[in-house]
């Protein structure tokens, strides 16, 4: 049977997109390499996701938010950015907004689990697990994918959501800008002695970056970015030595700290596709844009792309146009590029500035923090990007 839409990739972006379009009376097939058992109960991967208000609203409207246990949702009420050993901080407080928090913290595996639960019983969504796509093609009449074993599956539209290293994007021939930072991100959780007061810290030290993000039960999520050649040295540390090192780098702000998870390393590679569509084909999630985690926009941007594509498809159906037409996909492409390009290039520029150790870079870093605090419009712009309270 021909499907209306085939989605490649069962991560949060693919699953959320499937949920978003399921009320449009379209038949959807989602193809995923992992098993349904893993999708239903994904293992903890160390990643705690900082969700913006826009992302929370999208997940809430999709019925996914209610599937995440309340006690597993943490709040960020204050955020501080520190530079080097200076005590001066660029600070953000929820009281400067119209909301009672700056954002939300939720484990990545819980978002995956809730997203899967929201679609597993949908009548018009079929999930084909343990399946690898080997070929993709299209013509003016339809698109198709070929899976291992040679079976060909037809659809009006194919949507790839299979990571920033998307193999299907390459099959279609969409060129992509890839930037390898030569750094690795190490994530974990820790118990802290002193109250964190729902405060997130981003500490730009000269040899590495350390983020400490608040979680419930006086735990914190730790995100370290460092040169990849230094990664094994950190991973080989004892739990006690690692904890002492983090205590030192955060200058004892949380008192004694104790590791409560294993350390999870992730190489840092950013990517941005030159276009987010081709004939009867679209990219969403990390397959469209893979972000550096320093500004915490990766998941939020991916969710936003899935929602934007779904909205353009529904608009086309409502107005009587083909949902898989070039005009529909062009509108999605323009819409998401307007959001993603400034964030992508701005984040990469910020990372380059805050990883340089030249005297000029250090002066610029100090100046930017002070300007961010003192210039009202600049601070409001940063706050809007941080919270996405006013995003549409």
Q: Low-confidence spans: pLDDT under 50, at least 5 residues? A: none
Percent strand equals 25-35%
Structural class computed from helices and strand pairing? alpha+beta
Give the number of DSSP strands: 20
Oligomer designation: single chain
Enumerate how many helices there are, as a single number: 11
Look at the structure and give the mean pLDDT.
Answer: 90
- How far apart the termini lie comes to 36 Å
Helix content: 25-40%
The main pleated sheet reads as: 9 strands, mixed
Provide the gyration radius in Å. Answer: 21 Å
Coarse shape: globular
Task: Describe the structure concisely for a colleague.
With 392 residues, this protein is α+β, with helices and mostly antiparallel strands.
């Amino acid at each position: 049977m021909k499907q209306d839409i085939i989605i490649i990739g069962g991560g949060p972006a693919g699953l959320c997109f499937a949920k978003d379009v399921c009320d449009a009376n379209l038949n959807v097939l989602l193809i995923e390499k992992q098993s349904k058992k893993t999708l239903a109960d994904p293992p903890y991967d160390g990643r705690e996701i900082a969700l913006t208000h826009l992302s929370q609203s999208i997940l809430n409207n999709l019925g996914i938010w209610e599937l995440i246990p309340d006690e597993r949702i943490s709040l960020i009420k204050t955020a501080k950015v520190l530079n080097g050993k200076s005590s001066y901080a660029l600070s953000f407080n929820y009281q400067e907004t119209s909301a009672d928090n700056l954002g939300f913290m939720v484990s990545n595996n819980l978002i995956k689990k809730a997203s899967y639960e929201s679609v597993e019983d949908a009548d018009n969504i079929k999930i084909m697990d343990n399946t690898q796509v080997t070929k993709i093609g299209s013509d003016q009449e339809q698109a198709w994918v070929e899976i291992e074993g040679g079976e060909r599956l037809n659809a009006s539209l194919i949507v790839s959501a299979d990571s920033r290293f998307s193999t299907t994007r390459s099959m279609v021939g969409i060129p992509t800008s890839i930037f390898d930072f030569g750094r690795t991100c190490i994530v974990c959780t820790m118990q802290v002695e002193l109250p964190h007061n729902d405060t997130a810290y981003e500490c730009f030290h000269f040899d590495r970056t350390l983020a400490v993000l608040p979680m419930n039960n006086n735990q914190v999520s730790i995100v370290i970015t460092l040169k990849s050649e230094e990664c094994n040295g950190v991973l080989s540390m004892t739990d006690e030595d690692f904890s002492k090192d983090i205590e030192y780098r955060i200058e004892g702000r949380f008192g004694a700290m104790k590791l409560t998870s294993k350390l999870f390393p992730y190489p840092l590679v950013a990517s941005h596709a030159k276009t987010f569509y081709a004939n009867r084909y679209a990219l969403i999630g990390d397959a469209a844009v893979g972000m550096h985690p320093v500004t915490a926009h990766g998941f939020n941007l991916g969710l936003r792309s899935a929602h934007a594509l779904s909205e353009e498809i529904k608009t086309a159906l409502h107005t009587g146009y083909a949902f898989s037409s070039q005009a529909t996909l062009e509108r999605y492409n323009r819409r998401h590029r307007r959001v993603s390009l400034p964030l992508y290039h701005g984040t990469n520029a910020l990372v380059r500035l805050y990883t340089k150790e030249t005297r000029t870079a250090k002066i610029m870093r100090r100046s930017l923090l002070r300007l961010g605090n003192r210039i009202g419009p600049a601070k409001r712009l940063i706050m809007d990007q941080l919270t996405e309270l006013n995003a549409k």
